[in-house]
TrEMBL record:
Keywords: Hydrolase, Magnesium, Manganese, Metal-binding, NAD. Its cofactor is Mg(2+); Zn(2+). InterPro entries: NAD-cap_RNA_hydrolase_NudC, NADH_PPase-like_N, NudC-like_C, NUDIX_hydrolase-like_dom_sf, NUDIX_hydrolase_CS, NUDIX_hydrolase_dom. Residues 130-153 are annotated as: Disordered. Residues 155-280 form the Nudix hydrolase domain. It holds the Pfam family NUDIX-like. One of its GO terms (cellular component) is cytosol. It comes from Antrihabitans cavernicola. This is NAD(+) diphosphatase. It is an enzyme of class 3 (hydrolase). Signal peptide: none annotated. It catalyses: a 5'-end NAD(+)-phospho-ribonucleoside in mRNA + H2O = a 5'-end phospho-adenosine-phospho-ribonucleoside in mRNA + beta-nicotinamide D-ribonucleotide + 2 H(+). GO terms for biological process: NAD+ catabolic process; NADP+ catabolic process. Coiled coil: none annotated.
Amino acid sequence: MANFELSEIPSLSRSTLDRAEDLRADEQALKQGWTNAALLRVNRRGQVRIDGSTLVLDAATDLAAEPAEDAVFLGVDNGRHVWAVRTDDLEGTTGDLRASGSDLDDTSAGMLTTAVALLNWHASANFSSIDGSPTRPTKAGWSRISESTGHEEFPRSDPAVICLVHDGAERVLLARQHTWPETMFSILAGFVEAGESMEACVAREIKEEVGLDVHDIRYLGSQPWPFPRSLMIGFAAVGDPEQTIEFTDGEIAEAHWFTRAEVREALAQGDWTSKSGVRLLLPGSISIARGLVTAWAASD
């Protein structure tokens, strides 16, 4: 049985930004840094202004004279503080993580991934999960405080597993959801339940979605996926092509075993955005799914 590893760091895991968590509670340092800080403006669709492989940043003082309560501190880049804020209007060339994430340089990718995740959390965390009272941002956007009890809440990341199932030889299992066009296939994924290990989640999700038992579950890598606030944790596992495929939970429309040659051909055709009319199209480079499939296809 051929083992394989991810050949590249997933696109959204490439961050080289110094997150500078020691500064988040240092109000004086943040005020001093604000005078020369950069500001990333993100609209409600997660879009930003992009110039080639970099993000377009404004001066933070264009927003306010001091750190704004609704701005979130992303970290420090080349000695300069970087913040993000949600905005209604953007002018110029725009992009988002799905369309442009893999084209961004490592620092820009880290900035945008963090900004989208934090701003998405704030948009849904205006009230305490304990007593429903209003909350306000604190620690430069890295927590929220209940105005009635002082209870502090932190940004959430929901863990989800994504697993490439192969037969230990020349075949891999790819599936299509009901809402996807007939040529679009990917590997299987699902959210980790309370009290469940990631490996147990892999086995459960694959059994629920396609009825297969898997073994030799092996961790390969992870990727932040802020749509709106997930962490994708990548695995490989071995299944038996002779076992009957059953769509137990109704999420999957069809699933098939494809040969390594078929997958290599599909990778050469492009990705889900391609209009080639071929039988099989695979996810784009922004997703860890593409990296897992590419790594398996390249192994012998």
